[in-house]
Amino acid sequence: MKLASWNVNSLNVRLPQVLEWLDTARPNLLGLQETKLTDECFPVEAIRAAGYEVAYSGQKTYNGVAVLSRSPITDVLTDIPTLDDHQRRVLAVTAAGLRFINLYVPNGQAVGSDKYAYKLDWLAHLRTWLAEELASPQRLVIVGDFNIAPRDQDVHDPQEWREQVLCSTPEREALQHLLDLGLADSFRRFPQKDGIFSWWDYRMNSFRRNRGLRIDLILTSPALTPSLTAGYVDQAPRGWARPSDHAPVVAELSF
DNA sequence: ATGGTCGTGGTACGA
Questions:
Q1: What is the tally of structural domains in chain A?
Q2: Integer Cα distance of A126 and A113 in angstroms
Q3: Helix, strand or coil for residue A124?
Q4: Rounded CA gap, A221 and A242, in Å?
Q5: What is the pTM for the complete model shown?
Q6: What residue has its CA nearest to the C1' of B7?
Q7: Residue A202 and residue A208: Cα distance in Å, rounded?
Q8: What is the set of active-site residues of A?
């Protein structure tokens, strides 16, 4: 069982790359973020032709999430139950014997900004929801662009990023508050080299210089964590022509 | 070097 997450920064632009990656990586479930497509424009047929079922929740220009699955999808939810939010950032589905929650956590722009306050409020509502989901033991996985680097080892230059957005203490505490529900960061269940990231700014040759952050995560519930067999970042698509600024992240399980 | 690059949409704005 292979699970993955990829912020594609426009599915319109990145569809050929997504199809290419599906063909080689063959994930069972893939969460996409920043599709930037209304539901009427979603490329359902191209994805079905690749052998995947799909659920999607999008809007014009910004945000937008989708889940691709090699097995049938049921019980689709598009919102955090307690949060009235027009921004399309959440897509929960049931497929392949799992509850699979795909998230595009707000970026937050800058510490202290209105968008930063929205991010922290969003994360608080998310925590309430996930606590309810985890009250009943189940195979639950939460994937997505969390827009938070969990620790300094997930940052190319911790001093440069100290208390900046994506790395600030309140954001990290909000993420830790989620992990404290019993969720595991699948990547850190395995030995990793230093300097493995999932996002690199388009500017200043950041990818070539590996000036990145690891902000794309796959979290597993206690019922699922013992079944993890691998957790990694597939950095290859970040090196392709006209790439997303994020690379796909992957978790593998055996059950 | 105090910027820099993308995507969207048709101009600034979000990331």
A1: 1
A2: 20
A3: helix
A4: 35
A5: 0.97
A6: A10
A7: 10
A8: 104, 145
Rounded Cα gap, residues A119 and A114, in angstroms: 9
Distance A20 CA to B4 C1' (A): 30
Nearest to A92, CA basis, from A81, A111, A106, A76: A76
Range of the domain at A41: 2-253
Q: Is strand B within 7 Å of residue A204 (CB)?
A: yes
d(CA A149, CA A171): 9
**Strand B contact at CB of residue A26, distance < 7 A:** no
Q: What positions of strand B are covered by protein, i.e. any atom < 7 Å from a CB? A: 4-9, 14-15
Asked if strand B contacts A61 at the CB level, meaning under 7 A, the answer is yes
CATH code of the domain containing A235: 3.60.10.10
Whether pLDDT at A137 is above 90: no
Q: What is the mean pLDDT of residues A191-205?
A: 98
Distance, angstroms, CA A203 to C1' B3? 10
Tokens of A73: 């999808």
Tokens describing residue A157: 């230059």
Interatomic CA distance for residues A85 and A106, integer angstroms: 12
Q: pLDDT at position A136, please? A: 87
